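User: I'm putting together a teaching handout on how sequence relates to shape, and I'd like one worked example. Could you take Response regulator from Sagittula salina, show the sequence you're using, and then write out its predicted structure as tokens right after it?

Assistant: Happy to. First the sequence, then the structure tokens directly below it.
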Amino acid sequence: MTGRRLHETETRPLTVVLIEDDDGEAKAVERAFRKSRILNRIVRAVDGVEGLALLRGETEHKIEQPLVLLVDINMPRMNGHEFLTALRADKNLKDLIAFTLTTSMDAHDIEQAYDRNVAGYLVKERAGEDFIDLVSTLESFWTVVEFPVLKQKEPRYVG
């Protein structure tokens, strides 16, 4: 399939890290990227514990920056708020761009997410049929926003 990559630099395309416990929701997000002909790599973690291990390089998956995170709030073991708190406390991960992608429209959840410096609070119900609007929103974001420059000359793996 021919398509395009979002925010591709000369040598490093953007990687999407999806932290989502629901298999159906995760497949729907991946399908929306394919339907929109977006070819960026999507790596999934099923909860915050696995997400942190992935980002810290403690799994077999190596993830090169730049990357953006899509984080569910309601997950087992470590929920999205706990994950974001740990992410922001980690000196190697604190500057990563994270969006929430959740069913919760609770004002307290929204406030907590923004207190943890999310780039946006995306509600699944409003993300459009089959998450197509989500992909469109992220594509617009990536088109106009400059990502931080890596501090090292060599490609750096998260972790």
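A couple of points you could highlight for students: The domain at 15-144 is CATH 3.40.50.2300 (Rossmann fold). The mean pLDDT is 82.
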